[in-house]
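Project outcomes to date are best conveyed with an example. Our students and postdoctoral researchers have been running inverse folding experiments weekly, and each run begins with a structure described purely in C-alpha cells. The record below, which covers 323 residues, was selected by the lab manager from last quarter's runs and is presented without edits.
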C-alpha cells in the first residue's frame, strides 16, 4: 500500500490525464481493471473560477473512481490557488494535481503547462501558495524541460518538493519533443534521485516489459500509463497482475474488445448525452479495434456515425465479420 499524504493507493499503476479521453466514464471503466490511481483530464483553472458550466461538469467525481487526482492548468499564482481551493472544498477529488508539462500551443499561450518549466521560481511560488491554501495533497506533473538545451527537471522537482507538494509525476520528454521519439528514462531517474517525495514515471509504457524497465532503471514509486491504455484497459489489468505476482490473464478477444466498446459508448451517453458521446467515441472506438484484423473500412465509416444506434450497428457489423 502506497500513501500520498493521507491518501492510500493500493498499487503503483496509474492512469494518465488525457484531454478528451479520461472522463468520468473511462476512469470508472479503468478502475474496474484494478488500477491504483486515476487522473482526470486537464481542467482549466480559469473555467473553474468563472464558473463555466462545462468546466464545472468536469470536476464531478464518480464514487467508483477513488482515489482520483484532479488536474488543473493555469499560469498565475492567484488563479491556480483559487481553482485548487474550489476542488479542495467542493469536489470529491482525493489529490489536486497541477499541470506543468502540457506542450500544446493553446496551453502555452496561457503561460501555463510546460511554459512554466522555464521559470522554476514561479513554479515554487505557485505550488507553495496552493499547498498553503488547501487540505488535500498536491501533486505536480512536469516534463524534463523546455528543450534539450534546458533540461532542468531535477531543479524543478526540488522546487516542487520544497514548496510542499506530496507527489511528482515526470514525463521523460521535453516540451519540444511533444510525443516524438522515445522517452528518456535518464530524465525520470534524475528526478527520482533529486527528491524524497514519491515520484511517478510516465512515458511509453505499453507492455509489462516497459513497466519492468521503468521501475528497475529509474527507481520510481509508481508508473503512469496514457495512450497505451486507450481502448486497451486490459494492459492496466496485466500490469496490476504482474505487480501483485499473479498469473497474467489471456489477452482480450475481438468480441471482448467490441463488447467493452459498446458498453463504454452506453455509459458515455449517460454522462454526456448522445451527441457529445458519439463524437468522442468515434476516436475511442478506433483505439478499441486496434489489433483486430481488417478494420480499415470500419474506421472510415466511424467518421459518418451520428447516433448511438448507428455506432452500435457499425460495431455489431464488425463483430459479425471478425468474430
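After processing, the design step wrote out the following sequence:
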Amino acid at each position: 500500500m502506497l500513501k500520498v499524504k493521507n491518501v492510500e493507493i493500493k498499487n503503483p499503476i496509474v492512469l494518465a490525464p488525457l484531454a478528451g479521453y479520461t472522463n468520468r466514464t473511462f476512469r470508472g471503466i479503468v478502475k474496474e481493471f484494478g488500477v491504483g490511481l486515476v487522473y482526470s483530464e486537464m481542467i482549466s483553472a480559469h473555467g473553474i473560477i468563472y464558473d463555466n458550466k462545462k468546466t464545472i461538469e468536469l470536476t464531478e467525481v464518480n464514487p467508483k473512481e477513488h482515489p482520483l487526482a484532479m488536474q488543473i492548468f493555469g499560469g498565475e499564482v492567484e488563479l491556480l490557488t483559487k481553482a485548487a481551493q474550489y476542488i479542495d472544498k467542493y469536489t470529491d477529488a482525493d489529490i489536486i494535481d497541477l499541470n506543468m508539462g502540457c506542450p500544446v500551443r493553446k496551453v502555452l499561450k496561457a503561460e501555463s503547462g510546460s511554459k512554466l518549466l522555464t521559470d522554476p521560481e514561479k513554479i515554487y511560488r505557485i505550488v507553495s501558495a496552493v499547498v498553503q491554501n488547501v487540505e488535500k495533497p498536491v501533486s505536480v506533473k512536469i516534463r524534463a524541460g523546455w528543450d534539450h538545451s534546458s533540461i532542468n527537471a531535477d531543479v524543478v522537482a526540488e522546487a516542487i518538493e520544497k514548496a510542499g507538494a506530496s507527489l511528482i509525476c515526470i514525463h521523460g520528454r521535453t516540451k519540444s519533443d511533444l510525443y516524438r521519439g522515445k522517452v528518456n528514462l535518464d530524465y525520470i531517474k534524475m528526478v527520482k534521485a533529486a527528491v524524497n517525495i514519491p515520484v511517478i514515471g510516465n512515458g511509453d509504457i505499453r507492455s509489462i516489459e516497459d513497466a519492468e524497465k521503468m521501475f528497475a532503471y529509474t527507481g520510481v514509486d509508481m508508473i503512469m500509463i496514457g495512450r497505451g491504455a486507450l481502448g486497451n484497459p486490459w494492459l492496466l489489468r496485466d500490469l496490476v497482475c504482474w505487480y501483485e505476482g499473479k498469473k497474467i490473464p489471456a489477452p482480450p478477444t475481438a468480441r471482448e474488445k467490441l463488447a467493452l466498446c459498446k458498453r463504454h459508448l452506453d455509459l458515455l451517453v449517460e454522462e454526456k448525452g448522445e451527441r457529445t458521446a458519439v463524437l468522442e467515441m468515434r476516436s475511442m472506438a478506433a483505439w478499441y479495434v486496434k489489433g483486430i484484423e481488417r478494420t480499415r473500412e470500419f474506421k472510415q465509416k466511424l467518421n459518418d456515425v451520428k447516433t448511438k444506434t448507428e455506432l452500435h450497428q457499425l460495431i455489431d457489423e464488425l463483430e459479425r465479420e471478425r468474430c
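The longest helix spans residues 254-272. The longest strand covers residues 68-73. The training component of this project remains on track.
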